[in-house]
Specification:
The protein has 15 helices and no strands.
């Protein structure tokens, strides 16, 4: 608990720095939100009145502190386009991206772990060549291209999956799965390729270590050594890579959501940038950064569950 408390304290200055960066970069985007809202035919008087109403007539530092003051009270502000609370918009969109990210991770694990273990155990044989071929394809072909191929094959030609029509998972599980399956697999193939190579490399290193040879000398054979001793010790770099992938997925599934017309968090961010919706962009960017920080904390905690030696070192610290 002491370690978690220290990590939570270190998150505070990180989030403050990120809020400054997010707020500053957003205001560097060219374009006037008032002009976007009122259109090109708006009079200077109308533009000035709207800027004053939105608080855009103040200096950037004053706008930042006003924004931070609202954040401390749990108020993310209202969208400049439809005056809807930003928290409501994010609450509607974020679950879609989280579901897509979780499904992507599940697909990646189902592909990477069996193939990665087989590639390491049967190094230089057909299983190894098959796994390396799959990983090479996954790393070479962009997820958006795989998504487009899936749409052509399974939606346009075969009519197996719908191209749109997202339904929340708790409202209709079957329809939700039919819409989310293709984007999950399209992005999962890429993530699986990275995890597969990392797991194979890490497991090969572990299989050459003394404790594995000792286990075999004591009479353990085959998969008992792999699963009971080697695999757990090979997971640390895999967990690190997986954590970075999850953090990137939560904030970076923009292209996949655009291809499959999913009303997700990334789509909201892109639309807000195009429309110069400052409050929405700032809130989305800050929440994406917060998710990355939280995922990194969770990865550190998983280290301790995987390797007891890490727990001992933290206890001494």
């Amino acid at each position: 608990m002491a370690y978690v408390g220290k990590r939570l304290l270190t998150m505070i200055p990180v989030l403050i720095f990120l809020s400054i960066m997010v707020f500053s970069l957003i205001h560097l985007i060219p374009g006037d939100p008032a002009q976007v809202i009122l259109g090109q035919d708006a009079t200077p008087q109308a533009l000035a009145a709207l800027r004053a109403q939105l608080g855009l007539n103040h200096s950037v530092p004053v706008q930042y502190f006003d924004w931070m003051g609202r954040l401390f009270h749990g108020n993310l502000g209202n969208s400049l386009l439809d005056n809807e609370p930003v928290s409501k918009l994010i609450g509607q969109r974020l679950p879609v991206t989280v579901e897509l990210a979780v499904g992507t991770v599940i697909v990646a694990l189902l592909i990477a772990f069996p193939l990665g273990v087989l590639a390491a155990v049967y190094r230089g044989r057909w299983a190894d060549f098959t796994a390396l071929f799959v990983s090479t394809i996954g790393l070479s072909v962009p997820p958006f291209w795989i998504g487009l191929l899936f749409l052509v094959w399974f939606t346009v030609k075969a009519h197996i999956f719908p191209s749109s029509g997202y339904v929340p998972i708790f409202q209709n599980f079957g329809q939700n799965l039919s819409v989310m399956f293709l984007p999950m697999v399209a992005t999962g193939i890429r993530e699986a390729a990275v995890l597969l190579r990392m797991l194979r490399s890490s497991l090969l290193d572990v299989l050459d270590q003394d404790f594995v040879r000792t286990a075999r000398a004591k009479g353990l054979r085959g998969w008992g050594v792999i699963v009971g001793h080697a695999l757990r010790n090979a997971l640390i770099p895999v967990i690190t890579t997986g954590g970075l992938q999850i953090a990137g997925l939560l904030g970076g599934l923009v292209i996949t959501e655009q291809i499959f017309t999913l009303p997700g968090f990334g789509s909201l961010l892109v639309q807000s940038v195009y429309s110069r919706d400052y409050p929405t962009v700032q809130a989305c960017a800050l929440i994406a950064a917060l998710l990355v920080v939280v995922v990194n904390l969770l990865v550190d905690l998983v280290y301790g569950l995987t390797d007891p030696r890490i727990r001992v070192q933290r206890g001494r610290a």
